[in-house]
Amino acid sequence: xxxxxxxxxxxxxxxxxxxxxxxxxxxxxxxxxxxxxxxxxxxxxxxxxxxxxxxxxxxxxxxxxxxxxxxxxxxxxxxxxxxxxxxxxxxxxxxxxxxxxxxxxxxxxxxxxxxxxxxxxxxxxxxxxxxxxxxxxxxxxxxxxxxxxxxxxxxxxxxxxxxxxxxxxxxxxxxxxxxxxxxxxxxxxxxxxxxxxxxxxxxxxxxxxxxxxxxxxxxxxxxxxxxxxxxxxxxxxxxxxxxxxxxxxxxxxxxxxxxxxxxxxxxxxxxxxxxxxxxxxxxxxxxxxxxxxxxxxxxxxxxxxxxxx
Length: 309
What we know:
- The chain has 309 residues and is α+β, with helices and mostly antiparallel strands.
- It has two domains: 9-140, Arc Repressor Mutant, subunit A; 157-289, Beta-Lactamase (2-Layer Sandwich), CATH 3.30.450.
- The chain contains eleven helices and ten strands.
- Strands 1, 2, 3, 4 and 5 form a five-stranded mixed β-sheet that branches. A five-stranded antiparallel β-sheet has the order 7-6-10-9-8.
- The radius of gyration is 20 Å and the shape is elongated.
């Protein structure tokens, strides 16, 4: 049965990718979720299950996704998704529910993944939602494929947008995956109506104690930045500036590239900051509180090597 203490989201996703590659004899970028769903009952992760039925549109407007067990047949499971969501979001939701199937179905028989369940339920429930998201991210954006596509490349939003299309995920999901994966000092900021909604820092940024300046709470875009310039909706090529404009403790001669992507109404904006390399300041131990190591490296470090052509 899945859900063992030693089964992490990244290990589970990467083992599924390995099984698919053995069958295909290739390293695909776009993951066929129907194949994953149909094949899981025949793997150790699907013990006791005979079928996961094809995903269906939910009739409950508040539901982003659901995984349910047939109350009359415990060997039959089903997935529901929000039909109003865009195709990339639907795809991520289905992968998220498959994550619940692999990781958590021993704990319960129904998973209702609306926003209220994620943000307002008990800590244990929120944690399994984060684990399902991590599983989906690792499954849909394989770490070794991502590494192949960004190694020795000049990273900009054109490259990341192209990768999002290749993987069949949203632009934002790809940017978050890039931040968790890259060896560069990088920070991703999500602005909602002019205020900072979340911040992701790469491992190198955490180790070097790289942090943005916060002059208010909640934080707002800083003066003299692209993020604060309302006349610029998109900056996909990147603009060079002093890292000291954005970050605390950076010398004025250190450089940062700032990228900007605004969504339709401009009330949601993504800022990507890529800084020059710096000597990691090892006394910053905050990285221990978050998962920042490359999950693909964690997988291979256990001795489970993928099939490579």
